[in-house]
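Table 4 source record.
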Amino acid sequence: MFMRCEMREIQNKELWESFLLSHSPASLFQSWPWGEVQRRQGICVWRYGVFEEGRLSGIVQVSKICAKRGWFLHVRHGPIIGHSQSHLWQFVMDWLADKARKERCWFVRINPLVEDNSFYRTLFSSLCLLRAAIHAMDGEYCWVLDLDRSTDEILADMRKSTRYEIRRSEKMAIEVVRSDKAKDLAWFMSLYKKTSLRHEFVPHQGIGEEFSIFARNGQAQLYLARFGGEVLAGALILWYGDQAIYHHGASVTSRVPASYAIQWQAILDAKKRGIKLYNFWGIAPEDNINHPWRGITLFKKGFGGRISEYIHAHDLPVSPFYQLSRGVETIRRIRKGY
């Protein structure tokens, strides 16, 4: 039976967040606050609802990315389709393709947080979607820690060396400061710049906007670890849905276990908030020993937990120039060791 579908722009934050949190609460980049972060950076963002017979059945937050390698529409952590009906996916992808052409984009990129299983692989193939050439990002392959246990049980499941560093941080009386004030972000950004130079990665843009918008809603906390009058480590934790997300971290080279002190304090705080999951964010795949994230992966896994994996990002080409962008991403991924 044919069902009438249409796309309507959504301007009601409560309606948007209610649907998101009830259908895909881990989809941070489809959240209303994240759209505001993007807009604060000057990025074009659209929020549309997928309505079937007048009922909201999906949401799509779309950003227009004007990169040197090509223009494209990006639906990070989406689209979110209520019951994964194939006909709704087809309707949404047709709409996105049409919008991409109107915006003079080369392709559409999606990376919904759905399982990498036969249903979605078959569905994406039927929609003419191609597995993206870019490396795993946006938390599609990450390390998570279940918090519905006692602190003693969580500690017992940690790597012995991690547990030792946490105990050592407590004995050294490392001061962990929490803040949601913009003035304290300067400490973190100074550390972050040093960290990016030391590890040779391109620093994320928009951390200031991210902290400002999420902290205003009580959904962000800055952690700074001080010892001997010096700030040695920092982390930006986002509270969204039923997750605490370790989204950004920075530190100086030191034998003081400042980063361990921060993570343990953030885990304890998340438990007090009643949060079910601590998300350490992206890690390196097991089979890539040369991956740039190998060191931080060992650190994160030391706290115990499990792998959380979703289907890789996929692209829908709408222009022959898409192959140029794909070629650039392939070369960059190989050169960086991803």
